[in-house]
């Protein structure tokens, strides 16, 4: 159920103590020439769709397209939101839900840069009320990744618009992928990348880190199914 | 052109000193049983679509669904964002655009409650840089309203989900209107409504102020065309 | 009763659950050469004086002279306070009153630029406690204006130091008006005035919008009496 | 010259690089039964009047009645403003003056509780621009006090509404003093008064610390003249 | 007992309703060539050591080395923290203690510049909970100073790295004093020093105000013993 | 060189464009019964000592003992600082250094919970000036860990006071370790640990995650040497 297309009566029925409110959270960020700027939101929405099919009481909130994209913020098209503002927004949405009786609020996030804002939000709300706020950024995807990926990771920490994300998109939104423009790019990372603030434009032009040409919908399905499985399990357990 | 569906190359070409960046701004708010919660975003997006057809360099940014909805915040489904957070977000998007060479940034707003946050944003950005930030909330609609509306206004200041907004929707998003559920409601406003903070739930249940049953697509077209005409003219003049 | 001239015992007697605390709020802003910079405060104080004669428990607080005057801030003599600071001040005064047992707090405002800060304050206090904070900016003046004004409005939204405000002053503080210097000025407003942040210095020098020469004390009395009547009625009703 | 009673032309002439803008700063605070709540503002205004007679370019801004009165905030009539808000207001007034060409801004303060906010303001403005902001709280009064006061100080640090302040008022605003109600009160201060936050209501009812009955206009004149002399000298030297 | 060297069990036993948590607070600030930059922290730690020997339940927290040092901030080695940040830190430490059952929290401060941040912290915590926060900056040292000091004060308000502080150090941390480099310096203070924000570099190079050569451990002992005596007494009384 | 023990002349010589300012950053947090609460600061100071021996221009600032310890904040002795306050402090120290000519500022952190505050600080300073702020939290330790650790990790993400940290301490501060109290504890982590905010007290009492009994100074040396090697290399390369 998409809350944004409910009318007043439907919304009133949809929100109560049994509801699991899913907020798709993305970013407006370049992902090379084979993926659109809204890739991360599309992925989050895709995961929400699959999760909501399997979780009783699931309601998907309107997707928040804007996220924190510091590393690529100087690339045209990247629209950057601060951790503070993003966290304030997530808090306020959480408080609205709580005031209306909802007790489970899951931010389903498609963009790693949003992780700190999500964690900050969780801690604010934790001290305020007994709303359970879940923060999901592809949880449980590790084993599936190790199983299906066929190209090396570009970096122990960083990857972007690569075999992983492109496979996700081929599974969830193939209509928004142009594999003819997919490239393989293994940038030479500066040695102090993790110790100094380093915009990615310092060492690469096109925002692809890894081998996007190796992406397939099957790989995407295996990984996303693991994510969905994990989310569903965690929402049911708690 | 929808920025969110651009790839990296398209985004780089789309954004420069000639760009007019249009940000559709809505709210997640109940609008009775004949309109969806995302009504205000759908309207803003509809206006952006029509404007972008007529303004050179127009680029529509991903729509921001969340707005400031204090008066209805206790209704289930209404997700409330503060003026401060909304303004911070609009500022940060504006700064991103400016840093990437854009000089005209128009927030096309579908929800009256967002007006103060927009004005605050304009003043912050005005002091920071020479980005022209336009704030449009149905500009120039007055004469058209006086011409086409056939039912009385419920209040000199307030109206909601009524002949006006329903007509807008019938023109811009008829697929999201259920006229079978449209009602006519003229609430008894408390005398101190404008002097004291007054949630609308204090005097009515269904969020309709006015006569939604009188809405038609033709009325919507007349009003929205005037809005679009005004926006196009102002963007070209300045 | 003016709180500022009370001694400790009088203040203690004056403030309790039956008190209506009136705060005159103005601005330090140029109003042409026929009116003083403190015009808006003088008007607010004049209204408070008339209201307090008719409302049991009315106590007038020391007037706050500083307000938000963005549009004229680059004119010499205009001393500008931000919405945030003004709202913080109004909140803190409200909290002091509430802690001392007062339950009705009415900001009687003479300057339109203060309206957003007042509304923000109301919403903060509304969530904190059951203090009733009224925000009055010439409430109920519309019908009287339509009846007595003899010159056209310069703009659907804007007016300043004109037939309206000068008439108010001729009624409430004639000692501070110099009609020999009153002028009539109908500026040519820029088309995008309401869509772009526009300092008034962009299109006029003297801060008069409208025809100050048409002002009379009688017009002022008719309008202010309507305002006072409205305020008295609303304070008694709620 | 009182800026608040200037018209637009006079204000424009009054403010430039030679101006010394004097801001009287007070507090709304009980001062026993022989002095009014606005005592501190009246004193600051009195000092400004005397200073402005002797300093070329002096312009007195509208007095700010509200100050930081933590220690007496639970007494009815005391309206409390935070250091943060007061400092923000003083900053914003300073910025307005600076933007209009003024280079000397003197806050003439009548209330000790405002001292920290004034210092904080000075440091903010010092880093922003070359506006000279003076903070004056009865500067240079020490020797005169030692000479004229005939009753002991109630405490090495604290005094209030006593021989000192009452004498000031008898000199500057005798019309607002009721010596018939003046009292002498030497409270028993709690031992940890300076180490723990201690509202004065913890150890006394009437807000008099010291012997108000010993006050005379002559003593007030001697002390205030020393203050005025000091301010005039410092404004001329720098 | 030094909390920082406790293990988990010891910490759990040390903190409860009978605990007096002592926080040594210093500053990183030049003190001429005979004293180290951490002088103020060393003094605060020395006082805490002596106090904790005499107060039951005393626990000394890890010393906070950083303080607010505006006046000397342009001297190399001076690391400056704002009042706001320092106060936020002190608040958060206080809240942690309170949440763990502690009811007495004494900031033992070695640096006068920290006084405003400490007072602000006290007031925040006072409104939040019943934690007693003591702010100690050499309390009760006045009489001892008048008795033992043999050189004149450089200024009624200011002194630094002089007979006073050097004597403190000779008593508490003689291993960190190099009397061979001690100097005597009586700077010519600018007349408006207390009225305008004045970095000390405007009138002197070496950060000594007063006669450091007159310092002795005996003087230090007399003064510090008075401070310790006062703190112990106040902690026991309340 | 320890800045805190420099005198004024030494500090002036130590700080310039060739300086590498090292800030040891810790936390006040329980680490079981075999390690002290200041463990993380001691580790950071130990690393700084070794780094400063090998890097020209290295100056170690006074250690900041307080850090962000949300997960263990309800354990007695854990003193919690917010991300915001910690980041503000780190910013202010960085600005002081920059104003004094320093261009390299390395926060050497011993506590994982501080990582977000450090990153936020880096981004603030990056936008303000060309100070290079390095954030080091045991960089380059991964390969050494895989080589020397002989017991399994308790969790893919979390570990604490275990073979790793105890070995660090046995190498850097053996005087502060009591191996007789070391324990081995593999807690049962709640399934949603990474998705929901989860205080560690929810699933364990003693703050040991992993096998502290397997710690040795040799393991500590191997890991810390790799960290020091990495830091030295990165500081020299950039």
Bin the strand percentage of chain A.
Answer: 5-15%
Question: Biggest protein-protein interface?
Answer: A-B, 55 and 55 residues
- By CATH, the architecture of chain A is named 3-Layer(aba) Sandwich
Largest sheet of chain A: 4 strands, parallel
Number of DSSP helical runs of chain A = 7
CATH class division of chain A: Alpha Beta
Number of domains of chain A: 1
- End-to-end separation of chain A in angstroms reads 22 Å
Radius of gyration of chain A: 18 Å
CATH level 3 topology of chain A: Rossmann fold
Got a strand count of chain A? 6
Q: Label the overall shape of chain A.
A: globular
Give the helix/strand class of chain A.
Answer: alpha/beta
Return the string of H and E elements of chain A: HEHEHEHEHHEEH
Question: CATH homologous superfamily of chain A, by name?
Answer: Creatininase
Average pLDDT of chain A, rounded to a whole number, is 97
Q: Give the oligomer, counting copies of the same chain as homo and different chains as hetero.
A: homohexamer
Q: Ranges of chain A with pLDDT <50 over ≥5 residues? A: none
Q: Concise description?
A:
Chain A is of the alpha/beta class and 238 residues long.
């Amino acid at each position: 159920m998409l809350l944004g297309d409910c009318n007043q009566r439907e919304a009133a029925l949809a929100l109560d103590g049994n509801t699991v409110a899913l907020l798709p959270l993305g970013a407006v960020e370049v992902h090379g020439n084979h993926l659109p700027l809204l890739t991360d939101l599309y992925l989050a929405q895709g995961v929400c769709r699959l999760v909501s099919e399997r979780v009783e009481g699931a309601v998907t909130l309107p997707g928040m397209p804007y996220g924190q994209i510091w590393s690529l913020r100087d690339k045209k098209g990247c629209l950057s939101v601060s951790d503070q503002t993003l966290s304030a927004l997530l808090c306020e949405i959480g408080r609205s839900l709580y005031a209306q009786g909802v007790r489970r609020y899951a931010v389903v996030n498609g963009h790693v840069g949003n992780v700190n804002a999500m964690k900050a939000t969780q801690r604010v709300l934790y001290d305020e009320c007994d709303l359970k706020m879940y923060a999901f950024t592809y949880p449980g995807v590790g084993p599936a990744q190790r199983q299906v990926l066929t190209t090396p990771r570009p970096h122990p920490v960083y990857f972007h618009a690569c075999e992983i994300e492109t496979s996700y998109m081929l599974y969830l939104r193939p209509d928004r992928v142009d594999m003819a423009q997919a490239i393989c790019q293994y940038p030479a990372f500066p040695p102090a990348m993790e110790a100094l603030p380093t915009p990615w434009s310092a060492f690469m032009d096109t925002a692809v880190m890894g081998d996007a040409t190796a992406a397939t919908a099957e790989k995407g399905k295996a990984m996303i199914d693991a994510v969905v499985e994990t989310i569903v399990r965690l929402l049911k357990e708690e």
